[in-house]
Amino acid sequence: MHTITLRLKTARSRIVVGGGVYGRLGALLREEGMDGPFLVVSQPRIAAAVDMPRLRIGHVALVPDGERAKTLRTVERLLDRMLELGMTRQSTVIALGGGVVGDVAGFAGSVFLRGVSVVQVPTTLLAQVDSSVGGKTGVNHRRGKNLIGSFHQPRLVVTDPGLLATLPDRDYRSGLYETLKYGVIRDRVLFRILESRAEAVAARDPALIEELVRRSVAIKARVVAADEREGDLRRILNFGHTIGHAIETALGYRAVRHGEAVGHGMIGAARIASGMGLLDDAERSRIEAAIGSIGKLPAISRLSSEALLEAMRHDKKVRGGRLHFVLPERIGAVTMRADVPVRLVRSVLRGLGAA
């Protein structure tokens, strides 16, 4: 078991990573001094796959499956349930699920009585390596992804790679794309593991998965500790997300997983960096090959480059009317640029398969 403590000026998150820690959730809650009534927020498919009776710590509220559940209406229903249960400022919301559950439960916890304790128990690889850490919560809007939300740090994150045993292959690969992101932005060793041990990664070797999760979480914790509210450094975590979020928005949050969209976005960012002379072809080829080794990305041929550009213009990362891209300079180092020519972006989008 590994413990990473994220210390911020106004909050502290304890992140516990290790096989079997899910079974210790009750003890971990007591160690943190958290009180009930607890509300466990999850989804039907997760409730069916995970041994929820082992929790035995509170009431359960289920939200719909899928990205389309990330709406203000879902949050409103959770708030209604919290009021029905008589929850107080000493109560705790437990998000048991992937990124969607973590986002909506975290957002509900952030606004209920102006904020109650939140615990994240991520059950997907993508949530374990990324969204469960850092306190970003929120819901989508028809104009863009995660446009409505807040920063609300979880007091406790309980990450058990053993929960991934029943994760569908496509969802597992989706998390691997996000894991690869950390290798490109900050960790050449992590990148080489994914690059050189593709078979063991695909076979879900338990020790290897735990190492991937631990390395990714440690990177994110360091970045968030330096820049909690995405004023500067934290923006590097958006590598692949400018194009990725545009793909998700243009598809109405259907047909593509978040990690798959980020996979397309990372290829696009690498090609933009190469086109601007920031990244040499050998490094670009390695990035594309590593993404390809995880699995084939779904086609985006039904999308037009103009529709994707329009979606990007409504993204949170637009500043002063200019698109901001996180671009690799080499594996392990990225830079943020706002001077990417639109014609280059359009060309790259078409190269990804957009019309």
Query: Under the CATH scheme, which architecture of the largest domain would be assigned?
Result: Up-down Bundle
| Strand arrangement in the largest pleated sheet | 1-2-9-6-5-3-4
Q: Radius of gyration, rounded?
A: 19 Å
Helix content: 40-55%
Features of the shown structure:
two-stranded antiparallel sheet, 2 domains, 355 residues, globular, alpha/beta, Rossmann fold, seven-stranded mixed β-sheet, Dehydroquinate synthase-like, alpha domain
Brief account:
It contains 14 helices and 11 strands.
Report on the structure:
The chain has 355 residues and is α/β, with parallel strands linked by helices. The protein is 45% helix and 18% strand. It is built from 14 helices and eleven strands. The strands form three sheets. Strands 1-2-9-6-5-3-4 form a seven-stranded mixed beta sheet, with helices on both faces. α3 crosses α4. The longest helix has 21 residues.
Topology:
Layout lengths: L1 E6 L4 E6 L7 H7 L6 E5 L1 H6 L8 E5 L9 H13 L7 E6 L1 H13 L5 E6 L2 H7 L4 E6 L2 E8 L4 E4 L9 H18 L1 H9 L1 H5 L3 H21 L14 H10 L7 H18 L5 H14 L10 H9 L11 E6 L2 E5 L4 H11 L3
